[in-house]
Structures are given as structure tokens and as C-alpha cells.
Design a protein that fits this description.
Largest sheet: 5 strands, mixed
Oligomer: single chain
Helix content: 25-40%
Strand order of the largest sheet: 5-4-6-8-7
Order of helices and strands: EEEEHEHEHEEH
Structural class: alpha/beta
Radius of gyration: 14 Å
Number of helices: 4
Strand content: 25-35%
């Protein structure tokens, strides 16, 4: 069970997150990407020439956030989630030391409340590289 408390850290079955170390470079990263709501140009670029090593999609948004927090994925991208999709998972990632933004806002929490996109990673260097790559291709 994943859980977190604001200011109190994030955990999986009582063990503090993150559990696994991150990939050292974007090129070697494991990505969690949901293509459904991405801008068409960005989706084409990700299919044709992804900047990461491997990509998965489980379709369970909250769990995907938690997997990034735990280090099971290095980077995350989603084109549009409802509040109930991102609220718990984004807190868990944030408490695990992760970073996030939307496709249009550096401050993730400043974007539209009911549906927002997500760019995320646990490592600051990977996050910056991932966000720059994505925003250059929108």
C-alpha cells in the first residue's frame, strides 16, 4: 500500500520512498507515458524517436504516480488527468522528493484543477531534461 502525509514523507508498506535509484540519464530512463490526451505532434515524436530507453502504460493514473515515486519508473507523462486521478499520486510523488509540472505551467498546482496534464520525475536532473524535451516538441 502506497501512502503519504503532507510534510511526513511517502511510504510503500511502511518503507520510505523512494526504494529504487533513478536512471542516470534520460536516454537510459524507463518512462510511463499515456498517449491518449497528448498533443498530436508530441505523441508522434515520442513514437518516432523517444528520448528514453523503454516505455510502459498501465492506465491506472494514481498507481503510475506511485511507481515513479518508488523508482519503478524514472519519468512520467500524461496529457490530461481528472482531479481524482492525480490528487493522491502527486502528493505521494512530491513527498518522495519528486518534481512535476504540467505541459503549460511550471507550477503543477497552478494549472486547471479539474483536468491537468503531468510531466514528472523523481530526480531533478531527469525532470529538467524530460520537461525540456517535451516542451520543445509540443
Amino acid at each position: 500500500m502506497f501512502y503519504a502525509e503532507k510534510g511526513g514523507g511517502a511510504f510503500l508498506n511502511g518503507e520510505r520512498l523512494p526504494i529504487k535509484e533513478h536512471a542516470p540519464h534520460l536516454r537510459s530512463a524507463m518512462a510511463q507515458v499515456d498517449f491518449k490526451r497528448l498533443p498530436e505532434r508530441l505523441a508522434r515524436e515520442l513514437v518516432a524517436a523517444p528520448p528514453y530507453s523503454s516505455q510502459r502504460n498501465f492506465g491506472a493514473s494514481t498507481l503510475e504516480w506511485c511507481y515513479v515515486a518508488a523508482g519503478r519508473f524514472d519519468v512520467y507523462l500524461h496529457g490530461g488527468q481528472k482531479l481524482w486521478d492525480y490528487a493522491a499520486g502527486s502528493l505521494i510523488l512530491e513527498e518522495a522528493g519528486g518534481l512535476m509540472s504540467s505541459l503549460t505551467q511550471d507550477d503543477f498546482w497552478a494549472d486547471t484543477l479539474w483536468q491537468r496534464s503531468a510531466i514528472a520525475a523523481r530526480d531533478p536532473g531527469l525532470f529538467d531534461a524530460w520537461k525540456r524535451w517535451i516542451r520543445a516538441r509540443q
